[in-house]
């Protein structure tokens, strides 16, 4: 019985392969590796795209640094990185860089009597907290900003990501953008030299520590905070308004960003705009400009083309922020730069 | 004595049933010689392979860390700065954290392990010995990630909400010793890490101690009891001297695991590159730094080199610990 069915199946497959090229396209598989932040989204996109676009995605969430290394060695079809590569690095390795989606970082706190979205903070104050200059929640500067909120006399316990991560990169980029002192003393990187506080591993570690320690403040990706119902705060943006971390404020930041930056390395940290959330970040895909396997490179582009067209609902559901349509069009135009045998691989047909 | 007699009796009875078997070997002697040669060669290859493997790993770690050693010299070992942004790397804090947590873990674990082993071999009723013994062996089989999560979700909140506030309010107010227990009750930190490590190495030490305590000939103990020794005196003057070498060996086994433990420590140590006078303060260990920073270290960077250099240092520390234990044992054996 079983062997008969198997025989029929193999025969059927042989016929299918023999007759139509479409059959082989249906089994098209692409591999990617890198950033862990967008990994859940790529996973869901992959599941949906297998049905809709006939492309099977194998994505390894190994971290941005490892993703860059792997695409540099061409061991995967595309790399993924939270932090953009510099123009020089991209040219050296003959890579094209474009964003796939966006995310945002939110501060989370554990202060007795303070509710979600209630506390107002500024980037300067957060810098001072992480530099160990503000150590009590009832510090006059915090009290002045939060009239009407009862701030207790509790020590502030700053919590940071102990593992190297894109989340830290964006968080310290923001703090460095608003505080020259933070930039000088700590600087920007996927892991930095923290002056005070304690480190925890991963989003779950930071969230767990903040939950355990009275008076703690930490930072996680918005998606993680939303799914776990953590207590987030308001932030003052560049225009001087206090904004809550919501989809509207994230999208406002995306709309107001300058996407004409080379290699799409738009800076969405501390952008202008009345309602912009100040800590938003794109996450990037790295594609070889001279792919060894033209079909696979084409399938990568088909995959992201599908994701831009039909993947927004999935992205929003997982609390990611879809790119503005004008950016997606610009990315498709940039794909013309990828070629094999001097023939551009996009538009694919 | 009785055992020895029965053994020799077994040996004398041996040849008769085994006779036909040895005859078979003699008959196929040419293939036996070849088989012996192959077997000896394979065993030698396996032995040499271990040596080569160890040498290759050490060499690889050293070469990988060479850039960092060149850039910072001896400062790589003594420096306490770890700044990935400015690319300044010093291993001082993590070496300190590694040694302090491991030693503290032993301070906690060894007395408890001794108690367990002594209870199981001398005091416990017969029906309880097997279940408790099995439980200890199972404890050794728990993966370290489980200890890490258990520590993070149970021990850390317990420390931060109950134990640490209590200690801070009592011992923490004393003049000199209070320094050791100062700071906010994060729950994580050096002491919590040492506590988790102690629980992790406990089964190794306890199981070894129990096994070697069992090897003490009952005659020795019975004669001591016969002379009117108390239980403590028997342990102190008969059991421990008899088993000293193996007990130290078991402790070293535990120390080895404590030095290299990664997963569980990263969850509970607080991961800050600072040396704190307080046991509640956060710190890090060599293994935890390597595990946490490895993911984002790019190929060929000074940071990756520094991480490999850290691995080399951990290797050296383990080697030193092993050598010291050997030295101690040799002296005692001579004595």
UniProtKB/TrEMBL annotation, chain A:
Instruction: Name the UniProt key words of this record, in alphabetical order.
Output: Phosphate transport, Signal, Transport
SUPFAM superfamilies in the cross-refs = Periplasmic binding protein-like II
Taxonomically, the superkingdom here is: Bacteria
Q: Where does the record place the PBP domain?
A: 22-308
Q: Which InterPro entries match?
A: ABC_phos-bd_PstS (IPR005673), PBP_domain (IPR024370), Phosphate-bind_PstS (IPR050962)
A Pfam family this chain is assigned to: PBP_like_2
* Signal peptide interval: 1-25
Query: Its function?
Result: Part of the ABC transporter complex PstSACB involved in phosphate import.
Q: How does it assemble?
A: The complex is composed of two ATP-binding proteins (PstB), two transmembrane proteins (PstC and PstA) and a solute-binding protein (PstS).
Family designation:
Belongs to the PstS family.
Protein name as it appears in the record: Phosphate-binding protein PstS
Naturally occurring in which organism (per UniProt): Teichococcus vastitatis
For this protein's source organism, the top of the classification is: Bacteria, Pseudomonadati, Pseudomonadota, Alphaproteobacteria, Acetobacterales
